[in-house]
User: Fold this.
Amino acid sequence: MQANNTVMTKGEKDFITRFTGRYKSQYVLYFLLVVLMSVFSICSILSLNNFLQILFTPSGAAASSSSELDNLLNTVYGWFLGFGKTKALIYFTLIILGIYFLKDVFTWLSQYQIGRTRNYIIRDIRSAIFKKFSLQDIVFISKYKKGDLLSRFSSDIIEFDETVLKSVQMMINSVVVVLLYFAMLLYIDALLTVAALVLFPLVAFLTSLLSRKLRRSSKELQDQNAVLISAIEESIDGQKIIKSLGAASFVNKRFHAFNEKLTQIRNRVYRRVDLAPPQSEFFSSIVIAVLLAFGSYKVFMSSSLSSTMFIVYLILFILIIKPAKDASTAYYNFKRGTASMNRIMEITDSKNIIEEPLNPKPFPEDLKSGITFKNVNFNYTEGHEVLKNINFTFEKGKTTAIVGSSGSGKTTMTDLIEKFWQLKAGQGDILFDDISVNELKGEDIRKNISVVTQETVLFNDTVASNIAFGGNYTQQEIENAALTANATEFIEMLPQKFQTNIGDKGDMLSGGQKQRISIARAVLKNSPILILDEATSALDTESERKVQAALDNISKNRTTIIIAHRLSTVVNADKIIVLDNGEIKEQGTHEELYRQGGIYYNLYQMQQVG
Assistant:
């Protein structure tokens, strides 16, 4: 989304409406509380007129004025003087304290109300980002660095709250205070106030000149911040390899370059933002100077404005400057905050690249024939086909292995089965029995597939919670799954057995133990289709033996697809297909392929020698 010179684009307005719309009543309440706060603030200032008269007007005298407000306040003043000057001061002081107390109460209530509302809005946005992210397809997610996505969950949301939402809050507060104060100023002296109104548009125009480049710089700031977070995240994850390669100096230099660029952008943004207060302060001082000169002239030359009321007028006008400046600051901040808002909108408003059918067919309750690739030709980018003319059936209840060199298309085949990528017109079809993959929802397909990958994904939780992740199972079912996965032997040795927390990414466990937890999870899911993506390739010999035994247990009577690097793990497969440069070059059992003396034979021989 490109920035323009308008305050908000239609998409930005829709975004704000979507997340603030349900809280309209809360904003109305905030508006009313600000009105009450402003009314009591005005009352507290008007009361100074009487207080000053009691102090400085000779006893028994009354100030005369043609002003209706002055006459009303003089009536109040006369009533208080009936108690005597000393008591009048005491009573009036108590009333002023009461007015200030009510003003402060409504100030606190308004701030608490809007603060709570902003928190709810941020909660909703954070949930919306996470939900959209969790439901997005792999194609979309692969476009972003992990650090960039994390920055949208954290710094961008904080920036949105501190700029856009706070600016809306400041605008409501400023508009209410400015309007009520100006109404009172008009009532006190219309001519003096009109003179001020003539000057304000000029001040507003001059202060707005500073904000033109602010939005673009803020977008650049957020993008560079995401780059920095990505660099930090990569450095944390890659500490071992960085140290082993002796690349610490290189990484530090790269980080310094990113950090230096971020600092320069922040300086540029802050220079423009920080210029706003002194600039508006200077222009405000000019307006006050003009009013002092004009108002003093009116006091000396006319009876329409008393000296005490002119003091009250000046206090009201000076107090109106801050909310007026807040409105200008809110405008700056809002323009700065739209950069973070647009980054959030990239996630919340994104469309799924994988198109799901409007009227999906149910996934077959019981596969009869299996999963068939029919004339599949697939490419991620134009001009480079990853799979070429694939025609093959993964038979129901049988174990099929896919072997081949790196980049031959093994993982792409299973990704297409899980509908992580989508076949387009002219690229063939994948059939579950006789139902096209494009007639099924990806979620329904994946519900019927259990996957064990080389890179085991575990969470900072207990053993039991990791095994049961994503489902609702009894403790007995969890323990039975662990037994099938050959995991019980090491789980029973943990301090709290199944209730032991395994740390971040399961770091308290060895590679083989992690893999067996992952297998137990697949057992518990009990899906009719099982995909094993190089599940033992990263393990030592002893761990591989235990994990392989567990895999043999869960493969029985399932449609099993094995992506294998170590060919010794697939010798018992019902069928093996050999991929080379995206094409099926050979297929058959281990014995058949070995006797052929082709690609499979050569791969097997190399591993035996190794």
About this structure: The CA atoms of residues 296 and 610 lie 100 Å apart. The radius of gyration is 36 Å. DSSP finds 21 helices and ten strands in the chain.
